[in-house]
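As a warm-up, study this chain.
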Amino acid sequence: MPLTPLEHDRRHGELDQVMRAFVGQDADDTPERPSQALTAYLRHTWHTRPWALAQAERQLREYADNPPGRLRLRLGEYYALPDVGVPEDGIRQWLSCLADHIRHSVEKGEVPPSATPTTHWEWHARFPELGQFLGGWFSQDMPDEFASHEDAVADYRATTDPHLTARLTGEIHELLALDLEESAYALALAELGMEVDPPAPYTPSAWLDLVAERRGGPPHPVP
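Now compare it with the structure written out below.
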């Protein structure tokens, strides 16, 4: 019988979060050094949900100690690990290595310092509503769906709960507070799902600032 959503989250929910952090990243953790993906997971989780680290350590170790058989995986009775590039005969050792790093971080209080996100997962974990906004309204299909960036922003504002649009404004301010180079802001927008350029003559940061400035007041044209 397949896992119910509640059972999945109880047994493997935080394990799944750790695995998602490795999508598109190298699983090159060693006993001496965590990977960039695990460091990004630790940094974000320490600063947002520190209590989840104990769950992650437990679920990783339980999965490593009791891996499911192929029949249970085929029946959907167990969480199927995504392919992260680790050979099958090395998965259990790798999971235990991740659990060891998380336990060490918690027991020693070693928290990765705040920094600009370094992985695709971390960008979206830190800026979820901005990712929804950019990926949903500014994909490569945007020119076919809207006459301009202004129309796309107006549609977002008209169809999105005000609490979420307020969250978007906060996330934009947080991103701008990183004080990045314009090339880094362009990369950030791409990581968060934007597939078209900001409207001329605005740089990426200037356009974000304009979107945030005009969200809360009466409608204004946004290029």
